[in-house]
Amino acid sequence: MTKANEDAIPEGDYKYAWTPTSNVPLDDFLSKYKPSMVENDGTKPWIWVEKGGDTRSFTPADEIAVLEESSKILTEITDQIENIKNDPSIPTRSNKKTGAKSKKEVREELQRDARERFEQIARKYNYLCGKWLMFASTEKIDMIWSSLATSLINGPLADTDAFCAKVATTPRDANPNHLHVICLYFPDVYNKDAVTKAMKILLRNHGFNLSGVKSDMYTLLGIDSKHPSGIPSTIWKNKDLMDDKEIQALKDAFFAELKGGKSSIAQSPDKADPNDKKAMDVSAADKPKTKRKQKDIFASDDDDDDDDDDEHKRRAELMQKKKATAVSKRRIDKDKDSDKDQEKPKRKAARRS
Question: Which parts form a coiled-coil structure per UniProt (predicted)?
Answer without folding.
Answer: none
